[in-house]
């Protein structure tokens, strides 16, 4: 046999005897989770541009789980509608209401697990300076008009249970404040962080915040029914990581600096 042919045969035999070379190790696909949130600044929790404690927490969750969150900033009622339609994988930060179970899944299932919350916030009463309307923690007194709240906010259910006149026609807390000052509302129910902003802002000299909160409640990342059904393990990992990150020393340091602690 020709030496060249022998050489070729030897090379072929050698190649066949060697284990197949492993392809270059491909990185495992990163889970992309699409989240929507309300299109307005709600410090210290979040800003439209991705600042605040909610985003700091979720960034640490991403790093812990090696996943990626895609964010969409849209009006709140549309965000919840997209969640219900499974057009996004989740929405934040959402307080608990029984009828919101139709929209998506809370951590803990039937028994909502508050330990897996993103944060706690409260609703408070703002009135025009010098007004007589009052709130004693159980009922309103000297109410001579409607109580305003932001469109789609859960505090509306609390107010309606009081059998008071309500106004849900505002998207933003500063709109409520201007309605108050103009005499178009008797009072406004706003989130604690929004109230803090108002009482530090240019409208503050014309406003008063009542000392007793209407309600205090936890706020969650809720996930779509479709995501929890298709990726239950990932959903559970995300909620556990939120609890772990929120309790971590690194996050608590950020929270203290941003003024988000209660």
TrEMBL record:
SMART domains: PBPb. Residues 32-262 form the Solute-binding protein family 3/N-terminal domain. Residues 1-26 form the signal peptide. Pfam families: SBP_bac_3. Keywords: Signal. InterPro entries: Solute-binding_3/MltF_N. This is Amino acid ABC transporter substrate-binding protein.
């Amino acid at each position: 046999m020709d030496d060249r042919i022998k050489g070729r045969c030897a090379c072929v035999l050698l190649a066949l005897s060697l284990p197949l070379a492993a392809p270059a190790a491909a990185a495992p696909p990163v889970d992309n989770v699409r989240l929507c949130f309300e299109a307005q600044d709600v410090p210290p929790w979040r800003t439209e541009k991705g600042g605040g404690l909610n985003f700091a927490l979720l960034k640490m969750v991403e790093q812990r789980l090696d996943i990626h969150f895609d964010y969409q900033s849209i009006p709140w009622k549309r965000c919840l509608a997209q969640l219900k339609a499974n057009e996004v994988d989740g929405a934040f930060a959402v307080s608990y209401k029984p009828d919101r179970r139709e929209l998506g899944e809370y951590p803990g299932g039937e028994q909502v697990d508050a330990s897996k919350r993103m944060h706690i916030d409260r609703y408070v009463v703002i009135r025009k300076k010098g007004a007589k309307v009052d709130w004693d923690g159980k009922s309103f007194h000297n109410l001579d008009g409607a109580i305003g709240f932001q469109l789609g906010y859960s505090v509306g259910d609390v107010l309606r249970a009081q059998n008071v006149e309500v106004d849900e026609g505002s998207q933003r807390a500063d709109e409520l404040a201007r309605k108050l000052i103009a005499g178009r509302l008797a009072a406004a129910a706003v989130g604690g962080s929004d109230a803090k902003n108002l009482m530090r802002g240019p409208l503050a000299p014309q406003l008063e915040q009542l000392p007793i909160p209407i309600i205090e409640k936890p706020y969650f990342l809720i996930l779509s029914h479709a995501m929890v059904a298709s990726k239950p393990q990932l959903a559970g990992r995300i909620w556990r990581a939120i609890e772990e990150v929120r309790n971590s020393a690194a996050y608590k340091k950020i929270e203290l600096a941003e003024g988000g602690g209660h």
